[in-house]
Structure prediction request, 186 residues.
Amino acid sequence: MRLPRRAHGLTLIELLLFIVVVGIALAAMLRVFTTSTLASADPMIRRQQLAIAESLLREVQLMPFTWCDPTGDANVETATSASGCASLAEASGPEAGQTRYGPTNYFDNVNDYAGFSMAGIRDLSNTAVTGLSGYTASVAVAADTLDAVAAGSGDALKITITVSGPDSSSLVLQGWRTRHAPNSPL
Prediction:
């Protein structure tokens, strides 16, 4: 007489042991995910900082880069150096009374943004952008060496945008603006 074959499958003890092992593994993984989420910066704040920095960098890079003040000098189109300006050579920082916010006497050159900062993000019409009052932004513009262009030539500017978020985190974004021709507005 033959003994009956043992049934294939899991016993109750094997099933319980499997549930305990899987439960311990899932609890450990959940703890790792929770810890890493709590320790990481808020991704929304980081994305907002990056959007602000990119927008401000683009705004600065799109400004004319001329030897003379674009709105105050008759030789702005023909000057090949600062000495070729009729009355007002462009210098680092805004001219007297200039502001980023229009409609009149607004920044008209890349150099005008040197030293600019704002607490609470504002658009070009000086209107506060909703939800961004806890952010600050600052701009630094300085002549620098870029590949074969020497810093002393004044033909390459390094633009550094620093944005701080409401959680005191900071993001720095850098870009360049070069003078393609002596009097190039772009």
Q: What stands out?
A: The first helix runs from residue 12 to 39.
